[in-house]
Amino acid sequence: MELTGIETRVIGSLIEKELTTPDYYPLSLNALLNACNQKSNRNPVMNLNEQEVLQALSALKEKGLAVFSSGQGQRITKYRHYADHYFSLDHRELSLLAVLFLRGAQTLGELRLRTQRMYDFSSLEEVQDYLTKLSEREEPLVKLLPRQPGQKEQRYIHLLNVDYYEDKTVEKNSPQMDELIELKETVTILQKELQELREDFYKLKAELE
């Protein structure tokens, strides 16, 4: 299985929207086009047109990764991915693969941070466990890249379009930028843990009263 860059963006966008805005899924062509061309949470940012997205959808359908629907009472055709069924993925694996489709190579910390709206992993170890499962399949879907010069952490990449992401979207940050990203991730995780502690404290206080 190999996907083009546009096919990767389309299926990644479909997965993301299913997991983050299920009430608006499956997607119309216009909604999917907007999702593909988002400026946030995308690397690289793309400027696709309707024809490019339709061609990618047709290719994904032929590969068994997309389904078109236009049922009774539905005025326009809508589109959904079939990646979870095709690859036998659970919610956690699907969320990790979606972020890798949309953002390219990423560290464990980046993946945990960027999957939060799709699945809230409890720890970096849990993220790593599921990446390991994806990498140890009979036909692996992800792999760990060699450490890049000046980078503290190794990055994971999906294997459905290796050349595209390795050549064009692996971010080559300075050591200072890596430290800043790591610090931001740590702050976000600590804030989340503090909020959980507060909630537990108030629950316990209410029970004691």
Q: How would you explain this protein's 3D organization?
A:
With 209 residues, the protein is mostly helical. The chain folds into two domains: 5-86, Winged helix-like DNA-binding domain superfamily/Winged helix DNA-binding domain (Arc Repressor Mutant, subunit A), CATH 1.10.10; 105-208, Winged helix-like DNA-binding domain superfamily/Winged helix DNA-binding domain (Arc Repressor Mutant, subunit A, Orthogonal Bundle). It is 55% helix and 8% strand. The protein has helices at residues 5-20, 29-36, 50-62, 83-87, 91-103, 108-114, 124-135, 162-168, 175-208; strands at 27-28, 66-69, 78-81, 142-144, 156-158. The protein is globular.
**Number of helical segments with 4 or more residues:** 9
- Overall mean pLDDT stands at 86
Judging by the overall fold, what is the CATH architecture of the largest domain?
A: Orthogonal Bundle
Structural class: mainly alpha
Low-confidence stretches: 165-174
